[in-house]
Design goal:
- This protein is mainly alpha-helical.
- The protein contains 9 helices and 4 strands.
- Strands 1-2 form a two-stranded antiparallel ribbon. Strands 3-4 form a two-stranded antiparallel ribbon.
- α8 packs across α9.
- It is globular.
Length: about 160
């Protein structure tokens, strides 16, 4: 009869996360070394946040651009849009602004990838942003930054 794994030992093993650094670039393990993460690390970020809401890795240190006023968002509200490579670096894609799914994907991309207010103003429309905001899948620090600056986005998300 084969030996069964010691399940208690596996349950007590520390959780791991990827860290930056490259010990051995020839293997995946070398490119992404793992280190233990303590569950009590939540105290360092905030007691009232769940682990899934705590930014880790790249999202924790990323800075996002937030425009001064929603009125500055004067991008197209109709038609078709092709984003420049600096924002959408995948295969060229035409976003149809009549299609809410396309609007959501385009707005997620612009919000995540913009490094200046000019791109936000050129590609986002304030009315459309308010409409699609609750359905956007955004990194928590990005969503928090925008909702802190614009309470109407927080209200739209809560509705």
């Amino acid at each position: 009869m084969p030996d069964l794994p010691d399940l208690d030992r596996h349950r007590q093993a520390p959780r791991c996360r990827q860290t930056s650094g490259a010990a051995d670039s020839g293997s995946a393990a070398g490119r992404f070394p793992l280190q233990p993460v303590r569950w009590d690390d939540a105290a360092e970020v905030g007691h009232n946040r769940s682990m899934s809401e705590q930014p880790i890795g790249f999202a924790a240190g990323r800075r996002y651009t937030v425009i001064p006023t929603l009125g500055d968002l004067r991008g197209p509200a109709t038609g078709a849009v092709v984003l420049p490579k600096r924002l959408d670096w995948g295969p060229p894609r035409v976003f149809d602004l009549a299609d809410r799914a396309d609007v959501a994907v385009m707005y997620e991309t612009v919000l995540r990838e913009s490094h200046n207010e000019a791109d936000l103003a050129a590609f986002l429309d304030a009315r459309l942003l308010l409409t699609v905001w609750p359905r956007l899948v955004l990194p928590p620090p990005l969503r928090a930054a925008w909702q802190t600056r614009f309470p109407q986005l927080r209200q739209a998300a809560a509705a």
